[in-house]
Design goal:
Blueprint (H helix, E strand, L loop, with lengths): L1 H11 L12 H6 L10 E7 L6 E3 L7 E3 L1 H13 L4 E6 L17 H12 L4 E6 L13 E2 L2 E2 L1 H18 L3 E4 L6 H11 L8 E6 L6 H6 L20 H13 L3 E5 L5 H11 L3 E5 L1 H12 L5 H14 L4 E4 L2 H8 L2
Parallel strand pairs: 1-3, 1-4, 1-12, 4-5, 5-8, 9-10, 10-11, 11-12
Antiparallel strand pairs: 2-3, 6-7
This protein binds ligand PBG.
Ligand PBG binds next to α7.
Length: 334
C-alpha cells in the first residue's frame, strides 16, 4: 500500500525541466557559472636576438619568435586587448654548460624586460626562471656525471630571478621543478630589496609529451635523456598536492599546474585544498593539436578554443597561461 502511494506521488511530481534556462542566449547567460575574461590570461612570448625578427614557430602556427623591438609592439597589442600580463622566454645568442646568459644582466630576457617596461609600463611582465633554454645540453641546471645537481643549480636560478627583478620584472615564475628553489629565490629577492616581488611557482609541473612544440620554439630540447628526474610523473595527484604545499611553505604567492588539460582534476584539488591564487598552463602541445585539427577542418578551432579555456577556468584556475590569449581576448572583447 505505502509503496503504491509513493509511486503515485512520484508520477504526479512535475518533471524537472532543466532545459527551461537553455532556450535562448539571454536565459543561458543568466545561469552561466563560468565567465572567461581577457584578464584571466597571461600571454607567453619568445624573445630572440636581433632586430625586426618575427619568425613563426613551425609547430605553433600564430606563435612567433620575436626580437625585442617586435616583442615591445606585441606587448602594446596585448595590453590593448585587456590582457594584463605576458610571460617571457629567452632564446640566448650563446649557450654553455652553466647557462650563463640566464643570469647575465645583459641577457636577452633582461634586455627585453627593460624595453617592455619602458614602453608599456602598465603591462605586468612575468619571467620564466629556468636554465634549460640557456644550457648547451638543454637540461634545467648544472650536470655532473650526467645528473642534475640540485642545490648548485638552485643558486643559479636565484641569481637569474634577481637579475630579472633588477631589470624591472614584476613577477618571477620558476619552472625548473628542482627542490628548494622557491625558498632560495624568495630569500635572494628579500635580501636584495625586492620583498614585494611575487613568485608564481610552477608547483605541479608534469614530465609531459605536450611540451614538444615549446621546445622547438625555445630551442630547449634536452640533448640526451629527459626531465623525469625532476618533473612529475603523470600518474600522481597526491604528490602534486605535496609539491604545492611545499612551494606555499617556501613562499610562493601563486601556484601553477602544468599542463592543463590532462590535469584538470589536479587543478580542482589544488584550488579546493589551498584556496591560493592558482594558474594553469595551457601548454604548447595543447595549442598545436587544436590548431592542426582546426586547419584540417576536423574541428571548429574557435569553438574548441573557448570550450577548452572555459573548462580550465571551471576546474578552478584563476589565471590561464595560453598561446590563445590574444585570439580569445579578441572574441571576448566583441
Ligand atoms: C621550462 C619550460 C617549459 C615550458 C615552460 N617552461 C619546457 C619544459 O619544461 O621542457 C613548456 C611550455 C609549453 O609547452 O608551452 N623553461
Amino acid at each position: 500500500m505505502t509503496s503504491f502511494q509513493s509511486t503515485t506521488r512520484l508520477d504526479t511530481t512535475p518533471i524537472k525541466r532543466l532545459r527551461r534556462f537553455r532556450l535562448t542566449e539571454q536565459l543561458r547567460s543568466m545561469v552561466r557559472e563560468t565567465e572567461l575574461s581577457p584578464t584571466d590570461f597571461i600571454y607567453p612570448l619568445f624573445v630572440v636576438p636581433g632586430k625586426n625578427v618575427r619568425k613563426e614557430v613551425p609547430s605553433m602556427p600564430g606563435v612567433f619568435q620575436l626580437s625585442i623591438d617586435q616583442a615591445v609592439r606585441e606587448c602594446t597589442d596585448v595590453l590593448s586587448l585587456r590582457i594584463p600580463a605576458v610571460i617571457l622566454f629567452g632564446i640566448p645568442s650563446h649557450k654553455d654548460e652553466r647557462g650563463s646568459e640566464a643570469y647575465d644582466e645583459a641577457g636577452i630576457v633582461q634586455m627585453a624586460i627593460r624595453s617592455i617596461k619602458k614602453e608599456v609600463p602598465e603591462l605586468v611582465v612575468v619571467t620564466d626562471v629556468c636554465l634549460c633554454e640557456y644550457t648547451s645540453h638543454g637540461h634545467c641546471g648544472i650536470l655532473r656525471d650526467g645528473r642534475l645537481v640540485n642545490d648548485e643549480s638552485v643558486e643559479l636560478l636565484a641569481r637569474e630571478a634577481l637579475t630579472h627583478a633588477q631589470a624591472g620584472a614584476d613577477v618571477v615564475a620558476p619552472s625548473d621543478m628542482l627542490d628548494g628553489r622557491v625558498a632560495a629565490i624568495r630569500e635572494t629577492l628579500d635580501a636584495n630589496g625586492y620583498p614585494y616581488l611575487p613568485i608564481i611557482s610552477y608547483a605541479a609541473k608534469y614530465a609531459s609529451g605536450f611540451y614538444g612544440p615549446f621546445r622547438d620554439a625555445a630551442q630547449s630540447t634536452p640533448q640526451f635523456g629527459d626531465r623525469r628526474s625532476h618533473q612529475m610523473d603523470p600518474a600522481n595527484a597526491a604528490e602534486a598536492l605535496r609539491e604545492v604545499e611545499q612551494d606555499i611553505a617556501e613562499g610562493a604567492d601563486m601556484i601553477m599546474v602544468k599542463p592543463a588539460l590532462p590535469y584538470l582534476d589536479v587543478i580542482r584539488q589544488v584550488k579546493d585544498r589551498f584556496g591560493m591564487p592558482t594558474a594553469a598552463y595551457n601548454v604548447s602541445g595543447e595549442y598545436s593539436m587544436i590548431k592542426a585539427a582546426g586547419k584540417n577542418g576536423w574541428i571548429d578551432e574557435q569553438r574548441v578554443m573557448m570550450e577548452v579555456l572555459t573548462g580550465i577556468k571551471r576546474a578552478g584556475a584563476d589565471m590561464i597561461l595560453t598561446y590563445f590569449a590574444k585570439d580569445a581576448a579578441r572574441l571576448l572583447n566583441r
